[in-house]
Amino acid sequence: MGRSTLTRRLQVNPDLRRVAGSATHAFLRSDPRRLFELTADTFELLSQLREPQTIAELLGEPDDATLAIIDELVELGILQAEGPRSAPKPALRPLGQRLCGAPAWLGEPLRAGAVVIVGAPFDDLTPAPHPRGAASGPALVRRASAPFPLEPSLRTGAVIGLYDIDLGRNLMAGVDLVDAGDLPPLAGAPASDYLQALSAELRAILDAGARPLLLGGDHSVSAAAIDALVHAQGGGPLGILHVDAHTDAAPIRWPGELHHGNVLRAIARRPEVVDITCVGARGFQDIPEELEGTPYRALSPNILRAADPSALAGLLREDIPYYVTVDIDALDPTVAPATGVLEPDGLGLGELRHLLRTMIGAREVLAADLCEVHGEVHGQVHGQVHGQGAGAELTGKAAFQVIVELIDLLARPTPAA
Ligand SMILES: [Mn+2]
User: What is the CATH number that goes with domain 99-411?
Assistant: First the structure.
């Protein structure tokens, strides 16, 4: 840049809004997480660039210090080259109803080790004949969490957590939980744009040393999370624990045609993913062919029930971090009927939670998701058996228990390397 800046027609990014100011400084925001503080002089300069013009027209021959400031404004996206307005991007929207009443995230720096909830109300990649409805998942899970606000201990100020009768201890004790809200898709925009924006949001959380917990959404959102993790790790090896009634390895009929039923195929293509274990798959299933030497195992509920618990505890690698993705349909349909593709003979809720704890053990979990929670029970049979409202409420409660388990796993201190 430098002197070439003089002849470009520049204008203030039209997405920026002034949010506050003082006699000496102004504050501008483009989305909830980017706040710019500008001196009054710089703000005065910007106010002259609401309409595009060149710096030479505006200032003649500015000194190098002024040019450096202008270059920086361009780099930060505050000033941009004249042209068609860049396509709008999905942006995180803070919500009134937050998981367990956790604080919202408005762009302040995240503390390392914080667990950050991100809702992805997205089901554009649920192809027919499967019913859509996973976009309602984040709201359903947050609603189910409402009776369980996280209270701080009067003595220490740390979160007390929720007492679990089976474990005889409080889950989520001491957790630093933040709810970043939802990333709503933009109507009519390509699904790939959405997944890219989701990946960027998750990447920002990971780069801060925090751990995202993604509320899907259909299962395609896991691809965005893996993308974020791979980049945040600089390509380091990663294992996947995939809890699901299905192997999600349906054929990809068209190159690049990702959907919720083949997401594991897309994930298996990543060279950074070096270990995949699928838990809960049953019935008749495709196995991903993309693995080429990557250890892969699919363990049905029958196999899991027959397995020696110590064998399960030793199954995952101990030298790599894991991503845990849970499709709610891993649970038996009597436990979680509000999902898209029901499969009989599934896992019990206690069984699934116990499996997660056993298999993860002391291993590091960098991020996780829960997908395919629908806002309603599809189909007549379940509608009559449970009633639409009751079936969704039951599913929400089951999903919330899984979320608490995942938060507890994510909140553990990083094991010493
Ligand atoms: Mn799935």
Answer: 3.40.800.10
Ligand 1 geometric centre to CA of 351 (Å): 18
To the question of pTM greater than 0.85 for the whole model, the response is no
Calculate how far, in angstroms, residue 323's C-alpha sits from the geometric centre of ligand 1.
Answer: 14
Q: Which of 80, 118, 72, 81 is nearest to 98 (CA)?
A: 118
CATH number 3.40.50.300 given to 2-81: no
131 CA to centre of ligand 1 in angstroms: 14
Distance 281 CA to ligand 1 centre (A): 10
- Assign 164 a pLDDT band (cuts: 50, 70, 90): very high
Q: What is the CA(278)–ligand 1 centre distance, in A?
A: 10
Say how many Å lie between the CA of residue 19 and the centre of ligand 1: 42
The answer for residues whose C-beta is within 8 angstroms of residue 330's C-beta and 6 or more apart is 243, 244, 245, 279, 280, 346, 347, 352
Query: Domain residue spans in the chain?
Result: 2-81, 99-411
- Cα(262) to centroid(ligand 1), Å: 8
Contacts of 332 (CB under 8 A, 6+ apart): 344, 345, 346, 347, 348
- Specify the range with the lowest mean pLDDT, choosing from 161-170, 265-274, 391-400: 265-274
Taking the centre of ligand 1 as the mean of its atom positions, its distance from the CA of residue 336, in whole angstroms, is: 14
- Identical fold at 2-81 and 99-411? no
Q: Measured in angstroms, how far is the CA atom of residue 341 from the centroid of ligand 1? A: 9
Rounded to the nearest angstrom, the distance between the alpha carbon of 47 and the centre of ligand 1 is: 50
